[in-house]
Amino acid sequence: MFYCSSVFTYCIDSVSLAPKFAISVGKFHISKLLENQQKTKR
């Protein structure tokens, strides 16, 4: 039973962390894309 509850809490933690991780990765990629665009424009 303890194993099940620990896996359950782990799933909840990963689900709550996933959006934050995705947002941070998205911001990182967007900033990189903007940098590349500025370099190519010059």
Topology pattern, helix = H, strand = E: H
Structural class: mainly alpha
- Computed over alpha carbons, the radius of gyration is 18 Å
How far apart lie the N and C ends? Answer: 62 Å
Q: What is the general shape?
A: rod-shaped
**Largest sheet geometry:** none
Q: Average pLDDT, to the nearest integer?
A: 85
Oligomeric organization of the protein chains: single chain
Task: Estimate the helix proportion, in percent.
Answer: over 70%
* Percent of residues in β-strands: under 5%
| Unreliable sequence segments | none
How is this structure best described in words?
The chain has 42 residues and is mainly alpha-helical. 0% of the residues are buried. It starts with a helix and ends with a helix. The protein is rod-shaped. It has one helix at residues 2-41. Helices cover 95% and strands 0% of the residues.
